[in-house]
Write a structure and sequence with these properties.
By secondary structure, the protein is of the alpha/beta class. Helices cover 50% and strands 13% of the residues. It has ten helices and six strands; from the N terminus they run E-H-E-H-E-H-E-H-E-H-E-H-H-H-H-H. A six-stranded parallel β-sheet has the order 2-1-3-4-5-6, sandwiched between helices. Helix 1 (14-25) links the parallel strand 1 (5-10) and strand 2 (30-36).
Length: 218
């Protein structure tokens, strides 16, 4: 009997996780062995279950998909990662693949396309939703052209993006410092750098920007 491929689902919306589990349970080749509601628990799930593939949302509470992808690929390089997201911009696509994702699938995809994406990624191929221009992926992989974004967003470090997300979620400097195990002065320095790089002047502007970039889940 053919061994089923083990899958973990990382998605902060319970109804979507349940829907994905129900869809995949109809397939003889797959078995959903774990679920996570944020990036931190996604890493823990991969550590615990060692799945063949993880379906990973890019916008989740506490830790977003991008740092989760990096952490998973660093510790468990054999695990395939298929992002499932609403984001269609080049910034997100490039960042996901640079971080180690094996596929990029949109949430408005059909059941059939999702299965195709999963099978392609599990077979060792890269996958990008047809709705997104194939040239974006080809240009990135082959290195034929520079499509690296030049926006203010691209100037932020991963740590700054992490802090921006927490600011957007309403955490205060002290809470962020405790959560990240760094000093309040370091948080204040990062906050100052964020404002300078983004041309913003207060916490509410940073929050609005975090929401605009999809860092804060609704």
């Amino acid at each position: 009997m053919k061994e089923k491929k083990k899958i973990v689902i990382a998605e902060d919306h319970t109804i979507l996780r349940e829907g994905l589990r129900a869809l995949l349970s109809l397939e003889d080749d797959f078995e959903v062995i774990g679920e996570a509601e944020d990036g931190i628990n996604a890493i823990r799930c991969v550590d615990k279950y060692r799945p063949d593939l993880i379906l990973l949302d890019l916008s989740m509470p506490r830790m977003n998909g991008i740092p989760a992808i990096k952490a998973i690929k660093n510790r468990f390089p054999e695990t395939k990662i298929l992002t499932l997201t609403v984001h269609k911009s080049e910034e997100y696509i490039i960042e996901a693949f640079e971080s180690g994702a094996n596929g990029y699938c949109l949430k408005d995809t059909t059941h059939r396309e999702l299965l195709t994406a999963i099978k392609n990624v599990l077979s060792g191929k890269l996958y990008l939703s047809p709705e997104i221009s194939q040239k974006v992926l080809e240009g990135y992989i082959e290195g034929k052209k520079d499509i690296t974004p030049k926006s203010s967003w691209s100037k932020l470090t991963q740590r700054e993006k992490e802090i921006l997300k927490l600011i957007g979620e309403g955490y205060k400097n002290r809470e962020i410092a405790e959560y990240l195990f760094i000093s309040i002065k370091t948080i204040e320095k990062h906050r100052s750098n964020l404002m300078k790089k983004l041309g913003l002047h207060n916490a509410s502007a940073l929050t609005s920007y975090a929401i605009e970039k999809g860092l804060v889940t609704k």
